[in-house]
Amino acid sequence: ETAIKQKSISELLDPTDKFRIIYSMPGTAGDVVVSTAVIDGIKKKYPEASIYFATSPQYYDLLKGNPNIKAVIPYSDQILNFRAIEGCLDNKGIFDISYTPFINTQRLVNFIHGGYGPHFAKTYANSCDVSLGHIFVPRERLGIGFKDDYIVMHTQSNQEPKNYDRFNELIELLNMPVIQLGSSNDKEIRGVALDLRGKTNWRQTADVVANAKLFVGVDAAIGHIAAAFGVPTITIFGGTFASISKPLGDKAIAIEPTDRYGCLKPCHLSKCVKPNKCINTIAVSYTHLRAHET
After folding, report:
1. Are 33 and 124 in contact (CB under 8 A)?
2. Which of the residue ranges 13-22, 61-70, 140-149 would you say has the lowest mean pLDDT?
3. Mind giving me the DSSP string for 137-195?
4. Do 93 and 86 touch, CB atoms closer than 8 A?
5. Which positions ≥6 away from 145 have C-beta within 8 Å?
6. How far apart are the C-alpha atoms of 98 and 86, rounded to whole Å?
7. pTM
């Protein structure tokens, strides 16, 4: 069985590699984006290594053209079989080092520590015993023909407590055109200058965000992309701790609710258990004020 598993992965690798590392991050998009800073740190520690990145196919686009990555391969739980992957006894293995930092954040959720833990990017770097480098996000020119300065907004994540429902109020206070990015299922913002929901791949999304004057959104991948390009970024938090999840960068601002309807801390749940979501207690006027400060 081990031999069969080795062969299925080995067929994806370059047999001329001298020293081979695999870094696994099945998802999510934000984790994949931030992981490129960890990959940068790994490459600096092992400059001669061939680094393979294992993830879900929907995130390949985020890694295209990354100079630190030899190849992107599909993630499978067989990678967790360290005896087959790194070797054991008379089995040489197929990688010299296998990093699986997602175990403590996605399988065991052993990184929050009541909000006092390190940022999840540092958790990933620490598990690989490297320092964080720079985030790399590829871009593809979309050609939207938008000549004016604009703001990018993103309304939804994959967890309901993280979704802010007051963007329609916020847009009325802004004096700059707004472009909405996200999936086709994201809640629509009325009055946007350009609706790109479901119309861009990740690299095109990055290009639109990189040229924005401001990004305002929820705790999701696009905020991390915006901050990586040095775009002033406001991320609105509800069900997660900003201290361990906010985008990295000097121009990144995180806003959290002061009223959690009796909840003492963020829930990190996929569904809100209260009649109203705490994230919606964040005043639109306050968000608007922070936007003017950036």
Report:
1. no
2. 140-149
3. -----------S--EEEE---SSGGG----HHHHHTT--S-EEE-S-TTSPPPTT-SEE
4. yes
5. none
6. 7
7. 0.92
